[in-house]
Amino acid sequence: MRITHEHVFDAAPDAVCAMLANREFASARGAASGARHPEVDVEGTADEGFTVAIRQGMPASTIPAEFRSFVGSEITVRYTEVWEPPQGEDRHGTFAVEIVGAPGHAAGSLSLVPEGAGSRFLVDGSVTVKVPLFGAMIEKAVGESVLKGLRAELAAADEWLAREA
């Protein structure tokens, strides 16, 4: 299943990247998506390229009820984001989401490009679940959960940037 999302920030790409490369923000974004005690690792810098890794426990209530029997009462999610060094004002990266112990993942590309005084953030990826008969239904549920978490994280990002302005 393909997933896409666009978001416009009221900040230039360099300010958005500085936020994304900030360890405190990485913890805040994990909490915004409902994580319990996120473990965060940030390597590199916004100027040179960076990697953000977030491992978080989340209540199984974040996924549809019909699939909870597959994962138990809590799920562990590993999220990794890798941003390349700047190419002019544009930034590009990749992301991967893995639900530990579940037969599926999400992965794709990220872009951050100038738009007026702000920047446009683009997500383009896919969810793959290799389960006979139920794979497509689980892909849809995982895709919706990924997008719901992304929207919560982007709202936290907007709040962060507003405080920093």
Automatic annotation (TrEMBL):
It holds the Pfam family DUF2505. Gene3D superfamilies: 3.30.530.20. InterPro entries: DUF2505, START-like_dom_sf. It comes from the Bacteria. This is DUF2505 domain-containing protein.
